[in-house]
Design a protein that fits this description.
The longest helix is centred in the C-terminal third of the chain and has 27 residues, at 320-346. This protein has helices spanning 11-21, 54-60, 77-87, 124-143, 172-179, 199-209, 230-241, 252-259, 266-274, 283-288, 298-311, 320-346, and strands at residues 2-6, 27-32, 45-48, 68-71, 94-97, 111-112, 147-152, 154-156, 184-187, 193-198, 219-222, 227-229, 247-250, 279-280. It is 41% helix and 16% strand.
Length: 347
C-alpha cells in the first residue's frame, strides 16, 4: 500500500512516518520543502515541492495514485479546497488533521466524544479547522470524497515539552526558569484536567485508520488514556529536572488581557483550549484500533523529551521577552496581594 504525507516531519507526523517505515506493507512518500530530510528514514521517498504550488505538485505526482493521502499542514479552507482538487482522483482515502480544540469551549460535559459540538468562539485556528471539516464532509456527502477526520489533542515528542503557558519561541524559557529556581506561571488554579499523548502512541491509533474503509466519512479523536491536572504536569516536569516547582497560579482571563501587549494569544490557547478540563472518550477509535493505549505515560515521556532538549541546546532559543513578561505578571500578582493585605491593616 502507498501513503503520501503532506509535511510528514512534524511532531505528530514524524511518529507515524517512522512507524510505517518499519512496516513492509507500506510504501511511504513525503511531499514537503525538504526540511529535516536528514531525520527521515532511508526507506521513505521524498518529493520536494511546495504544496501551495499546485501545478508543480501535479507535475511531480503525475501518474501516481495512493491508498492514503494525509495532510498535516492544512490550516484553512483554502488549503482543504486545494487538497480536494489535487487528490480527489489520486487517493482511496484522504485524512485531514483537525484539532480537539475545535470542540465547544466550554462543552456541556467535560467528557468529550466525536459527537461533542464543534464551536470555538475564542480561537480562529480552531474555527478554521471546523470550516475545513465542514467543507470536506460536504464533499464526502455530495461526491463520495473519501475523507477521514482526525482530531488530535496535545501530542508531543522527544523534541518538545508540553506546557500550558509559554512565549512565542516555545517552551524552552520555562524550562530555563525552572532550572534557575524562578517561579513559573500555571493557568488558573492548575486543577483543570488535560490529556497528553506521546507521538509514538498517537501513531498506533492513526495507522489503524489508514486504509480502513470503516474510517471513511467518519471523525476520530486520538489521545492517550492518561489524564493529569496542570499542577501534576508541571510537577512532573520539575521532578524530571530535579528542581523545586515554584508555581504562580494566574487566571486565564488575566493572562489573556496582559498577554495582548506582548503579542501572546492566550485567549485562544488558554480560554479556547487549555484552561478547560477535558477527558476524551476514545471508544470509537478503539473499535478500529484495539491496541491503542498509553504505553509512554507522561512521567516517562517527559524524561525522553528533556534528555533530548538538554543535550541539544543549540536547537532551542531563549526568550528574554517572555522571561520579562513572567517576571512582570508574577510581580503584579504579588503586589496585588500585598495591597489587599495593606488595605485590611489600614482599616
Amino acid at each position: 500500500m502507498k501513503a503520501l504525507f503532506i509535511g510528514g516531519t512534524g511532531t505528530i507526523s514524524m511518529g507515524i512516518v517512522k512507524k510505517l517505515a518499519e512496516d513492509p506493507q507500506w510504501e511511504v512518500y513525503l511531499l514537503n520543502r525538504g526540511n529535516r530530510a536528514d531525520e527521515v528514514p532511508e526507506s521513505v521517498h521524498q518529493i520536494t515541492a511546495d504544496i501551495n504550488d499546485e501545478n508543480s505538485v501535479l507535475s511531480k505526482l503525475e501518474g501516481m495514485k495512493f491508498d492514503v493521502v494525509s495532510d498535516f499542514i492544512a490550516f484553512d479552507v483554502k488549503a482543504a479546497e486545494r487538497d480536494y482538487r489535487l487528490f480527489k482522483d489520486k487517493t482511496a482515502q484522504y485524512i485531514f488533521i483537525s484539532s480537539a480544540s475545535a470542540y465547544n469551549k466550554p462543552s456541556a460535559s467535560y467528557v468529550i466524544t466525536e459527537g461533542t459540538t464543534l464551536a470555538n468562539p475564542y480561537w480562529e485556528y480552531s474555527r478554521n479547522k471546523i470550516a475545513c471539516e465542514e467543507f470536506l464532509m460536504e464533499k464526502y456527502r455530495s461526491e463520495g470524497f473519501p475523507v477521514t477526520i482526525v482530531r488530535p489533542s496535545h501530542t508531543y515528542d522527544e523534541r518538545n515539552v508540553p506546557l500550558g503557558v509559554h512565549g512565542n519561541k516555545g517552551f524552552y524559557q520555562v524550562i530555563k526558569r525552572m532550572q534557575q529556581g524562578k517561579p513559573v506561571i500555571i493557568q488558573g488554579d492548575g486543577t483543570s484536567l488535560w490529556a497528553l499523548t506521546f507521538n509514538r502512541d498517537f501513531a498506533v491509533g492513526y495507522t489503524a485508520l489508514m486504509g480502513n474503509r470503516h474510517a471513511i466519512g467518519e471523525a476520530f479523536q486520538i489521545t492517550g488514556d492518561e489524564i493529569l491536572s496542570w499542577n501534576q504536569i508541571y510537577q512532573t516536569i520539575a521532578d524530571a529536572l530535579g528542581v523545586e516547582l515554584k508555581a504562580c497560579h494566574v487566571s486565564s482571563e488575566f493572562l489573556s488581557a496582559a498577554g495582548e501587549a506582548y503579542g501572546y494569544d492566550f485567549t485562544g490557547s488558554l480560554i479556547g483550549d487549555k484552561a478547560v478540563s477535558v477527558v476524551f472518550d476514545n471508544s470509537k477509535l478503539k473499535k478500529l484500533a484495539p491496541t491503542m493505549t498509553t504505553t509512554i505515560p507522561f512521567h516517562k515521556g517527559v524524561r525522553i523529551s528533556l534528555d533530548y532538549v538538554l543535550s541539544h541546546p543549540e536547537k532551542y532559543q531563549e526568550d528574554p521577552e517572555f522571561d520579562a513578561f513572567c517576571d512582570n505578571v508574577i510581580a503584579a500578582m504579588e503586589k496585588a496581594k500585598q495591597d489587599v493585605i495593606a488595605a485590611k491593616s489600614v482599616k
